[in-house]
Amino acid sequence: MQWKDEYSVGVAEIDDQHKGIINLFTEIDAAIESRGSWADVFFKLEQLREHARFHFALEESLMRMHGYSKLAEHAEQHKHFLGKLDQLQMTTLSRQVTMSTISYLSTWYAEHMQTQDQDFVRYIIDNGKVNLTHLPTA
């Protein structure tokens, strides 16, 4: 998975966190392709989980602070992602994780950035509650 300009939400801190998570997907892909040990894949998934939890907590805090009406729906999507990640991580303990297994999560994440994240950031920008640091690509 590679960063694309259309993933940008226009807020540097959020975009930087998204890029970090995408980099972890790339590392996981590489570990799977090289048939890395289960421990290597497990550890990289753990890194992804910790980065995602921090990132999701930041987003949800911003949503709460700014009265974003779709907070519950958005938080439920974060919970879904983390649940799937937990399942995937447990899979590494019993069998080899394949590229198709991780593909679901990376596809979900890409779609989430382009829809839900852009929607909530647009809300807080439109309401004058955060400054746009750069223009996102439409």
TrEMBL record:
GO molecular function: metal ion binding; oxygen carrier activity
Keyword terms: Iron, Metal-binding, Oxygen transport, Transport
InterPro entries the UniProt entry points to: Haemerythrin_Fe_BS, Hemerythrin, Hemerythrin-like, Hemerythrin-like_sf, Hemerythrin_metal-bd
Transmembrane regions: none
The Hemerythrin-like domain, residue ranges: 10-122
SUPFAM superfamilies reported for this sequence: Hemerythrin-like
Family from the record: Belongs to the hemerythrin family.
Protein name: Hemerythrin-like metal-binding protein
Organism this protein belongs to: Sideroxydans lithotrophicus (strain ES-1)
